[in-house]
What does this fold into?
Amino acid sequence: MKKWLFAAGGVVFLFVLYVHIFIGETRSVVLIMPLKCNIESADRMLRDSANRSGCWPDEANQPVRYGVTGVFRRMVDLRIEDGQRILPGRLSVFPNVNIDSSVLQLEVAFPSSLNPVKRVGQYWEGKRIRAEMSVFLTRFKTNLEDQKKVYGISIRETSTSDSMLVERKQVFDQNPSDSEIFLLVEKLQQFIKSHGGHVTGYPMFNVTGRTGGTFEVRVAVPTDKEIKSDGTVEWRQLIRGKYLEADVLGGDGAVRTAMGQMRNYISDYQRTMMAIPFQSLVTDRVKETDTAKWLTRIYFPIF
It folds into this structure.
């Protein structure tokens, strides 16, 4: 009988020893996932906890909620609530070898009971938390790999098909209105027609702020033939090359936001602009007064 008690005591001792050695007082669950997203854009979206970009997963009807308690460079501290407890966590992004990829890491730490039996239960609870973390991280990864959610636009690398333009410049005391820009467009269209040419594409323009508060507007219209410049209108050959292009639906505010995001993309992926960007007016804004229906194609010449 004593032998049996001794053996049972030995088993209990070994069990307690095993639990304390291999299941410590504080457990950390760490998940790592490769990400097809540039490190700088991933960092920007990581810290966008207000979900303005739409990259943070929608937590509606989810068993676990993640709240941001601290924002740092390429990292945020988290408050994780699963209905049973509140746990501290950390979500980080690390660079990878290629410029278009990075690595996500989600870490959660939770205390373990001194009771070895409870500690074993908490070990399996950690397994459950790990599975829920995996769901969150996978959804976050999917959003970050969606270019339109990261930048708000779908960006394409292309080259322009129009090789000849007539262009006109004008300086305004204030930011020109759409009607003023389209008046310049109309004059260029009439210029092309009067010289026996044809318009071959959408009008394009660029507005540049100058010292002193004035604005220089450059308006161009593609044409199919060479036309002699007349002093106010200049014919020129468009330089063929690489362009970043995106379609924007909405008014001037939407276009300004999209152009800012395009600059973010160029910076993130270390591209170089070789000339000023321009807008192609797909929608005739004079005829269509609903800004929500305006379609503008933006171009950024790059190396």
About this structure: Residues 8-24 have pLDDT under 50 and may be disordered.
